[in-house]
Design a protein that fits this description.
48% helix, globular, 8 strands, Rossmann fold, eight-stranded mixed sheet, alpha/beta
Length: 292
């Protein structure tokens, strides 16, 4: 199994001075403050961080961080304080890196499977949330003539409605189908529909090992021959306690070996799997190919 650490200029990362700030100011600041005081500062300092905590573990919170630099916050005070948090918390930057990395690997997987074929590429997004990575990736490839058929599956009606609006905004709504279902009920939302690519980014962060393996195994069985699973998991990092207690975002953290176990026990072969880490080494994106 290959492991690749992405480090090009498209990703957020720390330079020398930022590393000094992070280890000698930021980490002591969040770790030495009493938790209740740190939580009060995070929630009370501005509306942006308050909304992130209030909507934690949902697409709404992710979208606030994904779009932070594209939708500037109004007001000098709000802008200054939100900038402090967004630039200091490496988990926020790592999430934006995860989005960029997911889009990149989705584009690669789609283009590899097009390869002159006139058949539409079927893409399944499991626990799709806002589906921003999938929608933006297929919108970019649409300009190159790629034909895709996308099925977004989520239990949240609100998330699916948001995705519908996003698909309209990017001009790909005719290629997108919305399915409201429990993501663990693979037979319900596949039901003979064999996807070429399955994208499941973020869900494994909430599944313990046995449940994660069971789900990946079911998805492996549902994939078309030579299909690909693109999935991800959060890795342990120095801000784990801050994210759990202050941001109210508890997750199941996995090492590279634990992530590999999920893939291999789920049916994939080591030589067909690659784990890509974004520069902060917080999110590991796995691309696992099914060769049958």
């Amino acid at each position: 199994m290959r492991v690749v650490i992405e480090n090009d200029k498209t990703y957020e990362k720390h330079g020398f001075l930022k590393k000094i700030y992070f280890y000698f100011f930021w980490l002591p600041f969040i770790n030495l403050l009493p938790k209740n005081l740190c939580k009060w500062i995070f929630v009370s300092s501005n509306d942006h961080t308050k909304a992130i905590r209030e909507t934690s573990k949902t697409y709404k919170s992710l979208e606030l961080m994904y779009q932070y630099y594209k939708q500037p916050i109004v007001g000098a005070k709000e802008k200054l304080i939100s900038s402090f948090w967004e630039s200091s918390v490496i988990n926020a930057g790592a999430l934006r890196n995860r989005l960029a990395l997911t889009k990149k690997e989705l584009r690669n997987a789609i283009q590899e499977r097009m390869n002159g074929s006139s058949q539409k590429i079927r893409i399944l997004s499991v626990a799709s949330g806002s589906a921003r990575a999938v929608i933006e990736a297929i919108a970019e490839l649409k300009l190159l003539g790629s034909a895709v058929e996308v099925r977004l599956v989520d239990i949240s009606r609100s998330a699916l409605d948001y995705s519908k609006g996003l698909a309209l905004e990017f001009g790909v709504s005719s290629s997108v189908e919305l399915v409201r279902a429990d993501v663990r009920d693979v037979s319900k939302y596949c039901n003979g529909w064999k996807p070429d690519i399955i994208e499941m980014v973020g869900l494994l962060d909430y599944f313990h090992q046995p449940e994660a393996i069971q789900l990946v195994s079911a998805l492996y069985d549902s994939l078309a021959g030579n299909g690909a699973l693109i999935t991800c998991n959060v890795n342990d990092n120095p801000e784990r306690e801050f994210v759990t207690d202050i941001v109210n975002w508890a997750m199941v953290y996995r090492s590279r070996c634990q992530m590999a176990e999920v893939l291999l026990e789920g049916g994939f072969h080591p030589k067909d799997c690659t784990i890509f880490y974004e520069p902060f080494l917080i999110h590991g994106l796995a691309v696992a190919n099914k060769n049958t």
